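Two proteins were folded this term; both appear here.
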Amino acid sequence: MTDLYDPGPQSGGRRPAPGRLALVQAFVNTFYELEDRRGEDHFATEGGLAEWLEERGLDPGEVTVADLRRALAVREGLRALLYEHNDNAPDDGALGAMHEAADELPVTMRVDAKGEVHAAPAGPGVPAALGIVLVVVHEAQADGTWNRLKACPGRHCGWAFYDYSVNRTSTWCSMQVCGGREKARAYRRRRRSHDRDRG
């Protein structure tokens, strides 16, 4: 079983998001396998969503098509926010769908033996699990770490990574992969432009 706050694999050897924010990072990164960058969406089916939640110790209950749609709306809305953290235009459609999906998600708060307050699922089911994800987003907004979680703008990427740079200027999930590919594309564009100007 995976710990609830396990961040999952990281691109380019990056350090994962700190603390509980790693859950949000892992949730957003369920849309493909990092190792081969194929479109292997863990949430492609109700069973895939249930398996991912169970692996993290959350009780998905009986996952319905409506639950799956809601999870996808929250995930893609969060990714849209992470793109904004990387200086991209907002996706109003994705954000609107997330706001609608997030209405009335149940969450309960528990105090541990050390007196620390933690969000906990308010019973079984996908809505309660999604509530935990959004509570963690709220915590990150409060402690100032939220804007450092970004989505890579690389073509066919969108991978969520945590920007540890002093000035919050990291753009790519991996300079070796997405950053390098964009540099190569920019170089080819300059060459074509130069060749047209000479011709």
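Next, the second protein.
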Amino acid sequence: MSDRPLSMTYNAVHQRIARKRGLARAHRCIAPDCDKQAQTWAWQRTGPYIEAEPTEHVQARRWGTRIEDYEPMCSVHATRLDRGGTLTHCPAGHLRTAHNTYTHPGSGAQECLDCKRDGRSGRNALKLMKACDTCGIEVLEQNLAAHVATVHNRTARMVECTVCGHRLLPRNLRRHMNRHTGENQ
């Protein structure tokens, strides 16, 4: 036997697990109340681990280095652990319940609704409203310039109908006047 150290790459660790313990598909998922067939050997977030640097195409990844720290799991439960959460809590610490978890149809991917709600409220807090100096209407600050350009600058180009006093763009005046006189276009 050689004194060469074992490779600790993600693939090398998973190959050693498969050689020693067999395929994960030969087992049932170990998650409580799950009777699905296991799809993969999932690291249980215990023991020593390696964290790879993220690349342009791959997020940072962690994996355990001891095969004893892996258990057979279905893809849903393995994904929960891979994304940093636990079987009972999401990565942000919200309790996973049936009412708090959305399962995407088709893919089966699950999403924490509390996290989604927190993210939405965080985005909404960034939306600052500002009153238009011309008309006083509250507009999102990032849309204020567009509001002035489309509403107020367009108003300066508008003409008034001599019959009813309605304000409209010059290109629409002839069609508008035809309505008053009853002529067709």
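The chain has two domains: 1-90, 129-181. Residues 1-90 form one domain. These notes refer to the second protein only.
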